[in-house]
Prior knowledge:
This protein is α/β, with parallel strands linked by helices. The protein has three domains: about 1-85, Udp-n-acetylmuramoylalanyl-d-glutamate--2,6- Diaminopimelate Ligase, Chain: A, domain 1 (3-Layer(aba) Sandwich), CATH 3.40.1390; about 90-310, 3-Layer(aba) Sandwich (UDP-N-acetylmuramoyl-L-alanine:D-glutamate ligase); about 320-469, Protein-Tyrosine Phosphatase, Chain A (Alpha-Beta Complex). About 35% of the residues lie in helices and about 25% in strands. The chain contains 16 helices and 25 strands. The strands form five sheets. The protein has an eleven-stranded mixed β-sheet, sandwiched between helices. A six-stranded mixed β-sheet has the order 18-19-23-20-21-22, with helices on both faces. A four-stranded parallel β-sheet has the order 3-4-5-6. Helix 15 (about 420-430) packs across helix 16 (about 460-469). It is globular. The protein starts with a strand and ends with a helix.
Amino acid sequence: MKKLNELYPGYPEIPINDIKINSKEVKKGDIFVCTMGVTADRHNFIEEAIANGASAVVVQKNVKCSVPTILVADTNQELPFLASRFYDHPEKELQLIGITGTNGKTTVATIIQDMLGNDRCAYLGTNGLICKNFQESIRNTTPDADRLYKYLKRFVDSGCKILSMETSSEAFYRNRLQNLEFEIGIVTNITEDHLNIHKTIENYVSCKKQLVKQVKETGYSILNGDDKYYEEFRKEANGTILTYGKGKSTLQILEVIPHLKNTQIKVKYQDQNYEIVSPLLGEFNVYNLCSAILALVALHLNFSEILKRISWIHAPSGRVQFLNFGQNYHILLDYAHTPDAFAKIFQLLKQIKEGNIITVTGSAGGREKEKRGPMGKLVLEESDYVIFTMDDPRNEKVEDIINDLVKDSKKTNYEKILDRKEAIHHALDIAQEKDIVLIAGKGTDQYMAVGNEYLPYNDLEVIEDYFKK
C-alpha cells in the first residue's frame, strides 16, 4: 500500500491499495489509470471506476471528477512508471532475461529456468507465473504493466534474483515494457505473425527489435545467426552480441541426430567440439536450447557446468509434449498455430513416424485471416488425415474459419468437427498402432475464447477424460 502523495507529491495523503486499468476490477482504495486501448478509451469508464471505489484517477484529458485527478501527457506511458513506484521498483532487484521471436519463446524461457533452478530464477510467460513458491496461470503472455510489476514484486519477495520472461511484440507495441532494462535479450526467430495488430512485417520486426535495444550496455544480445532478420537485429542490438546457428557462430550447431525420445547434438564453442543429448525433440528445439545455453554463458557460468545442467531440462507443457496413457499409438500435444510452427513440427514427425499422422487443429478467430489458407494447405499436405475444429473462434463462426483453412487445397483428407472435445475424441478413436495424433493450437491453454467470453477449456483434460472413459 502507498499514499497518493508518495506517488504524486502535492496530492492528498490518502491510501492507495492497488492500480487498475479495468474499471470492472476496481475495488475500494484503488487508483484507476485511464489507458487508451485499441478500441477502448478508459476515460469513458471513470464514473464506473469511482462507483466501484476508486480513490483517484490518472487521465490524459481534462475531465472533472469527484476524486483526486492526476493529469499526465500519456496514460499508457505513465502506467509502467507508476507501477514501478507503487511496487518499490522490483525490476531493479532482478536480472531480467527477455525472450522474443515468433516461435520458441516459452521453450527458451522454460529451459533457462530449468537450468538455473526455480528458487533462483522465476518464469513469466504463456505458461503463467512459476517459481519455487507458486505456479499460477495468467491470460496474456506479457501482462499489462499494472499486473506485470505486481508479479515482479512477488518474485522478488520469493527470493528470486533472475527472471526469464517472454516478451511479446504486442507488449512492446502497447508500451508495457518501456521502463525495463534487460541483462540479456534473446531473439529466437522471425516469421510473419500478429499482423492483425502490426499490419506489416516491418512493424512487427520493429517491435521485436525493441528488446535488444533495451538491453543494458553491459548486457548481452543473443541472436539466431541463421534467421532471415539476423543482420537487422545485429545492427540495433545493445551490449555484447552472442550468436547461435549452423553458420559461424559463438555456439555453432554441427550435427543434429533425432530420436523418438531425445536428440543428439554436436556443437562447437570456443574452438572445441561437444556432444549433447537433449531431452527436447526437433531441430527447432536445438536452436532453442543453444540460445538458452548462451544465456547461461552470459551469466558467467562455466560451460562444462552448463552442459551438465541440460539433464535438468523438462519439455514445457504443451510444447512437443508426448502423452502416454498406455495406448499403442503416439499422442502429441503442441501449441503450433502458425505456418512456420507447423512446418517445424512436421519436419520432426516425418523423421520419426512409423504410421499415419492424424492432426486436430483450427485457427483463432479475430486474427490474421491471410495465414489460414497457407496453414491449412500445409497441414493437409503433411498429414495423412486432418480433423478441423475450433480454436478460440471469438466472434467468428467456426465453420467460416475452417472454410478459410481448406480453401487453398484440393485435398479431401479431412473432416470438420466443430466441437473441439468431440474432434479430439474422434481422432483418438480412429488412431491405429504406431500412428501419431497431433493435437495442435491450444497447448495447455486453460480457456476457449468464444464471443467475448473465456470459457474453461483444456486439451490435456479432454484427452485425460477420453482415457478415463
